[in-house]
Amino acid sequence: MSKKLFIPGPIDVNEDVLAQMAKQVISHRGSEASALQEAITEKLQDLFYTKNNILLSTSSGSGLMEGSIRSCTLKRAAVLSCGSFGDRWYKMGVLNGVPADLFKVELGKAIEPEMVDKVLSTNKYDTVMVTHNETSTGIANPIKEIGEVIKKYDNIIYCVDAVSSAGGMKIEVDESNIDICLTSVQKALGLPPGMSLCTFSEKAKKRAEKVPNRGYYFDLLAIYEYIQNKNYQYPSTPSLSHMFALNFQLKKILNEGLDNRFNRHEEMANLVRDWAQEHFQIFTDVNYLSNTLTVIKNTQGISVSNLNKKLQERGFLIANGYGDLKEKTFRISHMGDYTVKDVNELLININEILGF
Amino acid sequence: MSKKLFIPGPIDVNEDVLAQMAKQVISHRGSEASALQEAITEKLQDLFYTKNNILLSTSSGSGLMEGSIRSCTLKRAAVLSCGSFGDRWYKMGVLNGVPADLFKVELGKAIEPEMVDKVLSTNKYDTVMVTHNETSTGIANPIKEIGEVIKKYDNIIYCVDAVSSAGGMKIEVDESNIDICLTSVQKALGLPPGMSLCTFSEKAKKRAEKVPNRGYYFDLLAIYEYIQNKNYQYPSTPSLSHMFALNFQLKKILNEGLDNRFNRHEEMANLVRDWAQEHFQIFTDVNYLSNTLTVIKNTQGISVSNLNKKLQERGFLIANGYGDLKEKTFRISHMGDYTVKDVNELLININEILGF
User: Is the domain of A244 the same as that of A281?
Assistant: First the structure.
């Protein structure tokens, strides 16, 4: 089957993974549910190169973004934003009464380690929020190098939004000093939307213990403690269907080999970048390009909406620019189990429509 | 297929509904997603006998419980509790800094309208939280009669937790003056867990507009406004798989006929009650019995755990008593698409095991 959704999630899901969504439900309080969550945990620890705990959440990635800024900020959060999703994280802090400041870079630019260093040197903050892969601009921020900066400071909880990168780009959580690395399943993990997950360090746990007003459903400490006390169970009833599919898909991901998977995403990105540079321009700072999507500057002044309408007639969909970047840019995304062949097929169709 | 999970959710799901969970995903920002959410909304309005708006949430029912007390309490919440789930609602208020008081009745007793009247006559409250069907005790509270009381007072937002009753017992939202009636899909609606939903009145909307600190993911006003402004779409990426299955299942529910469905649940309950009265006793005040589960007093001093172990060998599962009621009571639940035949089969197996 050729892939049709080239938007930055949700994406087309393989049939064998979809079949797992249709498994008969089990009790969420039995040993079978515990074993399932434990099996998922072990595989996610491999995927994230971490020994830290794994928390699951029946919600979109936004839920865990809200949960992390609210559960772990005692003093003040520094939210570093390079686009819409960073801005959203700051908004979540404000809407929960969490003291927070927003530091923005120009759209298309990255959050560089020096900027983080400067922000932290004020000694005003105890959490740092960084988007790894900003789907509104196509930036992949240098989260490992930012982690080196964070090491210099005492007691900073480092939270990374890896919603559109985890499973498609290498994220070494422990090596990068990341306390909370969150993602949702409908992006590079290749599942239908409806579940999110994060890594959760002991340091984050100790911080959350001191934070009042963490709420209920997204209180990361409460989820953590439930797992500890109830042998890998979940405080409320989780989406068991997503857990079946996630466990199955993680087996496939680890069987593919993480490096093979990450290389495949890079190959797809290279293909789109070459095409973009031939016909348009890349919108994003070329030193920090994402491997799961490319944002293309509409230098030819085409109507992106019209292109997308014609693509849809052929069974494909790409994404217009996000927010203010609509029509000024457009986005081609390739995540999960997509292949070079799928991307080639899309580009051939775009070429035919645009007469390239 | 004989049903095996006789716990108060999750329950066994019919194969044709499960198949919907395996449908290929679509863009959550396209017209197909809008049409899907609109179709679900119309059917849920029928199910709840309401003209009010319907909000969907990718979360367990706890998410919308938290969202309702937090989004709509300006002055102070009165949480009326007849068991564990009422207590949880109060706790959610406290954990979010919402001023709230807890009014408890003895386990096994109902929340009667007079009690609500007395609480509201203090003029201290502007939200009232009532559990419709308390699965820890088997009580179905008289939510319609409570609604009559609430009518006497100005500007009270009336929130009902119908998690384990909606779809199995008649709930006339508009007739009962309910502003927010919430449920999750893995109970009497007969779906796998992973989504919750609620009705949302204009009065609730106007209240939420005045409430600060509503958070992000469970801000009911934000979900409402997104639906209004974005033509039935959802602020973050929803579980499309659950939406496919929900729309399909609601069609089946309306085809069965609501009264037929509610009667079927009552017949199953009558069967279990008769059996319970023959061999044990009913734990619950018989004037307020739930039609989706029966809580049975363990007057014979059987080991409920052992019974359940033996049932599991035969492919069935019932629920032990909840919390402090463990072993003192046990619970038999029958929801969704279960039939009298399924319940009979379970009871025959219990009889064989216990030598009745």
Answer: no
Q: Do B237 and A58 touch (CB under 8 A)?
A: no
Secondary structure class of A34 (helix, strand, coil): helix
B42: amino acid identity, one letter: E
List the 157-196 stretch of B: residues with Cβ below 8 A of A: 184, 186, 192-195
Same domain? For A262 and A197 the reply is: no
The count of C-alpha atoms lying within 13 angstroms of the C-alpha of A90, restricted to the half-sphere facing its C-beta, is 16
What strands, in cross-sheet order, belong to the sheet with B293-297? B281-282, B293-297, B329-333, B319-320
Does one domain contain both B216 and B282? no
Instruction: Mark whether A37 and A169 lie in a shared domain.
Output: yes
- Complex ipTM value: 0.96
CA-based max dimension of chain B: 62
Residues B209 and B289 in one domain: no
- CATH code for position A184: 3.40.640.10
Do A153 and A32 lie in a common domain? yes
| B236/A92 Cα distance (integer angstroms) | 13
What count of residues does chain A have?
356
Q: Which residues of B110-121 are buried (b: 16+ CB within 10 A; e: fewer)?
A: bbbbebbeebbe
Residue A232 lies in a domain: yes
Distance of CA A213 to the CA centre of its chain: 26
Strand locations in chain B (E):
53-57, 77-81, 100-104, 127-131, 133-134, 139-140, 157-161, 180-184, 196-200, 281-282, 293-297, 319-320, 329-333
User: What CATH number is given to the structural domain containing A271?
Assistant: 3.90.1150.10
Backbone angles phi, psi at A196, to 5 degrees: -130, 170
CA distance B291 to chain A (A): 21
Give A50's contacts (C-beta < 8 A, 6+ positions apart).
Answer: A173, A174, A178, A181, A199
Is residue A317 within 8 A of residue A6, CB to CB? The reply is: yes
| Candidate from A19, A236, A237 with C-beta closest to B22 | A19
Question: Do A242 and A312 share a structural domain?
Answer: no
Same domain, B184 and B276: no
A19 touches chain B (CB under 8 A): yes
Query: CB–CB of B133/B166 below 8 Å?
Result: no
Which chain B residues contact residue A244 at CB under 8 A? none
Residue A30 near chain B (CB below 8 Å): yes
Pick the closest to residue B238 from B217, B213, B215, B208 (CA basis).
B217
Q: Does residue A9 lie in a domain region?
A: no
Residue ending a domain, among A229, A254, A279, is: A254
The whole domain housing B302 covers: 258-354
What string of pLDDT tens digits covers the 356 residues of chain A?
567 899 998 999 999 999 999 999 999 988 999 999 999 999 999 999 999 999 999 999 999 999 999 999 999 999 999 999 999 999 999 999 999 999 999 999 999 999 999 999 999 999 999 999 999 999 999 999 999 999 999 899 999 999 999 999 999 999 999 999 999 999 999 999 999 999 999 999 999 999 999 999 999 999 999 999 999 999 999 999 999 999 999 999 999 999 999 999 999 999 999 999 999 999 999 999 999 999 999 999 999 999 999 999 999 999 999 988 999 999 999 999 999 999 999 999 999 999 99
Instruction: Domain count for chain B, please give it.
Output: 2
Contacts of B218 in chain A (CB under 8 A): 217
Q: B32, exposed or middle or buried, with CB in 10 Å at 0-12, 13-18, 19+? A: exposed
B11/A237 Cβ within 8 A: no
